[in-house]
Amino acid sequence: MFQKILIANRGEIALRVQRACRELGIPTVAIHSTADADAMHVRLADESVCIGPPPARESYLNAASILSAATITGADAIHPGYGFLSENADFAEMVEAHGLAFIGPSPAHIRMMGDKIEAKSAMAALGVPLVPGSDGAVSDLDAARRIAAAIGYPVLVKAAAGGGGRGMKVANDADEIEEAWRTARTEARAAFGNDAVYLEKYLDRPRHIELQVLADGRGQVVHFGERDCSLQRRHQKLVEEAGSPALSAAERDALGARATSALAKIGYRNAGTLEFLYQDGQFAFIEMNTRLQVEHPVTEMVCGIDLVREQIRIAAGQELGYGQSDIRFTGHAIECRITAEDPETFVPTPGRVTAFHPPGGLGVRVDSALYAGYRVPPHYDSLVAKLIVHAPTRDQAIARLRRALAEFVVVGIKTTLPLHQRIVEDVGFQRGDYTIHWLERFVAGH
C-alpha cells in the first residue's frame, strides 16, 4: 500500500479523497493555490503545499508544480480527483515517469477515451451500441451536409475533445448545418485547442444513463449499476439518481454485462464511467469518463462500496477480490449538486459564507468543504456541496430529500438550494418522468 498520497485537487473532492486515505491509514498532502490557503482540505491534510496563484493554469493545472510538491513531500502516489488534470494522459505519463503511481486508468486508456471519436470507434469494435453518426471527424462542410442528410435531421455537431456542452451545436435542418458546424469548430478550438468535430443523430427525448465500473487491470471488471443523470442544464448535471426510474433490473444487467466484457477485453484499470443515451428501450454509447465522477456518492449509497478506497487499492496493485455476483443494490439514492450561483439567473455568487448548517439524520450525506467564515473564491467551479439521500424506495428518498433540503442552511452567498426545492416538488420529477431536456423547460417556466 502507498506510504503517502498527494491529492491533486481542491474543495469537496479533495476532502473526499482525504477521508478515504485516512481510513486506510495513509497520510495525505494537500496542494492549494494562494486563494485556497484557508480551504478545509488544506486544514485537514497531514501536509500542505502552496503551488501557485489563484488562476488554475498557474496552480491546479500546473503539472510541474504538482510533481515538485509530490517530490518535496515524499509522496509515492497522486490522486487527481475529477476535473483539472484527472483525464490528462500527458499528466498521467509524467506522474509515472517520476516513479509515482497515478490513481486512475493507464495513460493509454485515458488518451483513447479522451478523444470521443476514438472512444466510439473502440466501443463499436467491442460490440457496444452507438448513436448513429459519422465514422470520424468531419473536416469539411460538404461532408457534414452529406452525413447529416444520410442520418436525418436534427443532428448534433460535437467536439471530438469536448465536454461540458462546449463545442456542441444542434442543426434542425439543412439551413442550420453550416452555422452549427462552423460554430462548434470555433468553440472547440477555443476551449480545447482542437477543432475536430463529428456528427451524430440528435435524439429528441433521451435519458442520460451512465454505468459505474471498476477494473483491476487483470481482466476482472465489475459494474455498480446505473445512474440517471438526465436532469441537466446546458449539459451540466444538477440532479442524479441511482438507479434510474426508467430502467428495469434486466436492462441494467444486460447493459452491465456488455460494458464490463468490452472493458475486460482492452485490459482497463481503475474506475470509469460509460455514458449512454437511452430512448425507446435502446442504449447508445456517447462517451467514457476515465476518472471518478462528481456523482459517485449515489452509487456508493446503493452498493455500500467506497469507490475511492477501491481506486487506491487497485492503483496499489491489489486485485478486486470480488465478482459481479457479490455486489448488491439496496434502496434508492438521489444527489443534488448545490452551486454558488443565483438560483434564477445562474450567475456565480462567490463570497463569504457567514453561516453553514448541513442537514443530517438517517440516510443523509453531505459532501462539502464549506464552513462558516469560508470565502468561496471566484476562480473555480461553483460547486460547493453535494446533498445525497438514501432510502429503501424512491418515494421515501424524495421525502427524505425534501426534508434535508429544508434543513440545509447556507448564509452569506446565494446558492441553488431554492431551485432544488422547486424540482423536488414537481410532479414530473416525482413520477420520474423526465428526459435530458426536462430541466431546461422547467427552469424556463419558472
Proportion of residues in helical segments:
25-40%
Shape: globular
Main pleated-sheet profile = 8 strands, antiparallel
Kindly provide the radius of gyration, computed on alpha-carbon positions and rounded to a whole number of angstroms. Answer: 21 Å
Strand order of the largest sheet: 13-12-9-10-11-14-19-17
Total domain count: 3
Structural class of the helix and strand makeup?
Answer: alpha+beta
CATH superfamily of the largest domain: ATP-grasp fold, B domain
Beta content comes to 25-35%
Count of β-strands: 20
Quick structural gist:
The chain has 446 residues and is of the alpha+beta class. It is 34% helix and 27% strand. The longest helix has 17 residues, at 249-265.
Task: Tell me what the structure shows.
- With 446 residues, this protein is an alpha+beta fold.
- It contains 15 helices and 20 strands.
- The strands form five sheets. Strands 13-12-9-10-11-14-19-17 form an eight-stranded antiparallel β-sheet, with helices on both faces. A five-stranded parallel β-sheet has the order 3-2-1-4-5. A three-stranded antiparallel β-sheet has the order 7-6-8.
- Helix 4 packs antiparallel against helix 5, helix 7 packs across helix 8 (177-192) and helix 12 runs antiparallel to helix 13 (417-425).
- The protein is globular, with a radius of gyration of 21 Å.
